[in-house]
Write a structure and sequence with these properties.
Layout: H1 2-14, H2 16-36, H3 51-62, E1 72-78, H4 88-101, E2 107-110, E3 125-132, H5 141-156, E4 160-164, H6 177-194, H7 197-225, H8 229-259, H9 264-291, H10 299-330, H11 339-343, H12 354-364, H13 366-381, E5 389-390, H14 402-414, E6 422-427, H15 434-446, E7 451-454, E8 458-459, E9 465-472, H16 479-499, E10 502-506, H17 508-542, H18 546-571, E11 587-588, H19 591-619, H20 624-651, H21 659-691, H22 700-705, H23 727-735
Parallel strand pairs: 5-11
Antiparallel strand pairs: 1-3, 1-4, 2-3, 6-9, 6-10, 7-9, 8-9
Helix pairs in contact: 1-2, 1-9, 1-10, 2-7, 2-10, 4-5, 6-7, 6-8, 6-20, 7-8, 7-10, 8-9, 8-10, 8-20, 9-10, 9-17, 9-19, 12-20, 12-21, 13-18, 13-21, 15-16, 17-18, 17-19, 18-19, 18-21, 19-20, 19-21, 20-21
Length: 736
């Protein structure tokens, strides 16, 4: 591995024009494809195998043309003080609004509140339900605009009008200004770490090119593969972070090789041969973690994971090829590490850096550092024991949004359960008396607690399937509503035994509950798959059993600590005002499994970059304690800088108005902090110091069986750095 990458690095350095032209051409091609691709809108959403999805599929068969999973909007009206919605002027305004809403191209029906008895008991609040033939994530922007404009016309007539429902749901936005701030922070850290604007600009430039290729490709294929805006956001978030970090590691190693007196081409080759090997394996762990999201069985998550994994692959390839090419262009403008300090006579020669001094302290006091790190992360993880999962609804939106105000008006006029009605589907095709079966279902549901209202059964033309709407007393995201869904399903099992009629619970609220449950069920298998594959990969990299085991356990501490912090902020509201969290509530149900996937890949990045330098020193004859200190001497500064950069990139997304993006940005930023500065910088060296030579133990039979990937660059010792690359080898590299 190291020898091949060494030759690849020297080839890219020599043929820099060809390499740069290749990546620029690829970026241009992807950009043109994205610009000419048809607009894809947002991705469809389905959860195969769940009861809620089965019910939607059944409704599409038995009630053709109704678009059972189509988007809905609730236009909520409130009369001015001292007036009622039934007053002549207010009623006329509502009827005109209903008529205007029905003219939409994607609208299938609009309910008149005065005909559907959708007026509150005090007469102050009314709502009109609007149904569309596409899901909220697939609606055209023109339909959303028409909905908002019609509501504004009613406001201009003197009514308070707000719009809720999933019809206003749009693609997740990125971090906006916060993302720019994150990149500025990353640039500052790069300048401090690498010592010059030119050197700092290389990782930023290559990361932007890599993300540009990845996101443009996603945009170009969005229509064909049904990829939504959230897919691009994740690819942008991960691609920027790893793209900057991978390039930083290679540039930093290059400067270190220059400091040892090697010429620039040889320094590039050795930087790619050593740090490039770590980049390859670190990238593989991220790809495994992201691609592993496909085991969850949710198409949207699978697409997000694979698209982000593809962007990571591009980042790795660019770091291995374009960084050497750009270093060739930069020439002497990228200086050797420590060159400025060596020119200052006032500097004390041989003074150890902060990372080296810290590592020496940890090696002297490993037990105390280990105990403090584990106890500290354990304390931060305590809130995770109170984790409540769910999907955000309009009640979790900021109070400044029309969706949240509509939610509050409905709760005021009709009760919180009106914001999340349940749809009960009775499949009585095999029942002897479908009407009696539907009546049995209605009576059974009315007898349950937490039920505010039950509508009469509505049958299809064939008379074998009925729809019943149930309004809970509690809000959609509450534990009481979830218990009601389970209670109805339990009753359905008894009804099927007596009448042969199947009872299915669906609707947005039930879909969210099923989605959360599906993710919970998939968490352990996913964790086992990802950690297991990465564990095997790290055994090959480190040729050790205990080092990969320690890496996996440290990752679990990081994730638990990060989940604890997320619960404290987004569920309990601690420091919520500082982070712009206006409404607390359940944690997004995909957060744990998403955090496991992404954070594991990133955690293994730092493990690989830091511990490979320790392994390299140990293989070259140093004692285990000396190897820990040496690893920190060469890598601590760069790993710390990489972590700060990644935290800045992720932290930029906290400014998003989308609660999902805000939560993901905060969760990943705090997880990187815990993993880089507590686990990798404190717990890892403490454990290695305590284990000593046992840390690098590997059974002889396994040592013989494993391939030698030579991450440490041992094979580079036999290479003559002044020797030209053979023309045949060069042609092979071009073909590769």
């Amino acid at each position: 591995m190291a020898t091949f990458l060494y030759r690849l690095g020297r080839f890219a350095f020599r043929r820099r024009h060809f390499v740069a032209l290749f990546w620029v051409a690829l970026l241009t091609l992807a950009g043109v494809a994205a610009a000419s691709a048809p607009s894809a809108g947002s991705t469809s959403f389905s959860i195969p195998g769940t009861e809620a999805q089965k019910a939607f599929d059944l409704l599409d068969q038995r009630f053709p043309g109704t678009s059972s999973d189509g988007a809905t909007a609730r236009v909520v009206f409130k009369a001015p003080a001292g007036e009622k919605m039934t007053d002549a002027g207010n009623k006329a305004t509502v009827e005109e609004t209903v008529k205007a809403l029905a003219d939409g191209s994607e609208v299938t029906s609009v309910d008149d509140p005065f005909k559907q008895h959708a007026v509150s008991k005090d007469g102050r609040v009314a709502y009109a339900s609007v149904r569309y033939d596409k899901s909220g994530m697939e609606l055209k922007d023109a339909s959303r605009t028409a909905l908002e404009d019609t509501a504004q016309q009613a406001r201009d007539a003197g009514l308070t009008v707000e719009v809720g429902g999933d019809a206003l749901q749009s693609g997740a936005e990125a971090g906006g200004a916060g993302e720019v701030v994150g990149l500025v922070i990353a640039a500052i850290v790069l300048v401090i770490t690498l010592g010059s604007l030119v050197a700092a600009g290389l990782p930023l430039l290559t990361a932007i090119i890599g993300v540009g290729i990845g996101v443009s490709t996603i945009t170009a294929l969005a229509k064909t593969l049904d990829l939504g805006d959230t897919t691009s956001t994740l690819a942008l978030m991960i691609g920027l972070a790893v793209g900057i970090d991978y390039a930083l590691f290679i540039v930093s190693r290059y400067r270190g090789e220059l400091a040892e007196g090697r010429d620039r081409e040889e320094a590039v080759g050795r930087a790619v041969g050593t740090s490039g090997s770590a980049v390859v394996f670190a990238g593989l762990t991220v790809v495994i973690a992201l691609a592993g999201l496909s085991v969850v069985g949710v198409p949207m998550l699978t697409k997000m994971g694979l698209a982000a994994a593809g962007t990571v692959v591009v980042a790795v390839l660019i770091a291995l090829t374009m960084i050497p090419a750009l270093l060739g262009y930069a020439g002497r403008r990228v200086r050797a590490a420590g060159e400025k300090r060596r020119k200052k006579a006032s500097d004390a020669p041989g003074r150890p850096g902060l990372g080296e001094r810290w590592a020496s302290f940890v090696v002297r006091r490993p037990a105390a550092v280990l105990l403090l790190g584990v106890v500290g992360l354990g304390a931060v993880a305590v809130p995770a024991t109170q984790l409540e999962l769910g999907l955000p609804d309009d009640g979790s939106q900021p109070t400044s949004t029309t969706q949240r105000r509509a939610y509050d008006l409905l709760s005021e006029g009709f009760g919180p359960g009106f914001n999340g009605p349940l749809l009960i589907v009775t499949d009585a095709k095999d029942s002897a008396d479908p009407q009696a079966a539907a009546s049995r279902v209605t009576d059974a549901i009315k007898g349950l607690g937490d039920v505010a209202a039950v509508t009469p059964a509505h049958f299809n033309d064939a008379g074998d399937t009925a729809m019943i709407t149930v309004v809970p007393k509690s809000k959609p995201s509450s534990v009481q509503t979830e218990d009601l869904v389970h209670a109805i399903r339990d009753k359905g099992a008894d009804i099927k035994a007596d009448t042969d009629a199947k009872v299915l619970v669906t609707g947005t609220t039930a879909m969210n509950i099923d989605f959360s449950q599906k993710l919970n069920d998939a968490l352990i298998p996913y964790l086992g798959l990802v950690v297991g594959l990465a564990f095997l990969l790290l055994i090959v990299v480190f040729r050790s059993i205990l080092v990969p085991l320690k890496a996996a356990l440290g990752f679990l501490l990081s994730v638990l600590g990060a989940l604890g912090a997320v619960v404290a902020v987004f569920q309990w509201g601690w420091l919520g005002g500082l982070l712009g969290v206006e409404q607390t509530g359940p944690i997004m149900s995909m957060m744990p499994i998403f955090m496991v996937g992404v954070v594991f890949g990133l955690a293994m990045d730092y493990e690989v970059f830091l511990v490979t330098r320790m392994r390299e020193a140990y293989v070259h004859g140093e004692t285990p304690g000396q190897a820990v200190v040496t690893g920190f001497r060469h890598s601590a500064r760069v790993v710390a800088a990489a972590a700060v950069i990644m935290m800045a990139v992720f932290g930029g997304f906290i400014s998003s108005s989308e609660s999902m993006i805000k939560m993901i940005g905060f969760g990943l930023a705090i997880a990187v902090f815990f993993d880089a500065f507590v686990v990798r910088m404190a717990i890892v060296p403490a454990v290695l110091a305590l284990l000593g030579r046992r840390a690098w133990w590997l059974p002889k039979w396994l040592d013989r069986a494993l391939p030698n990937v030579d991450v440490e660059g041992e094979g580079l010792k036999t290479l003559d750095g002044t020797k030209d690359i053979d023309p045949d080898e060069e042609r092979e590299l071009v073909r590769a």
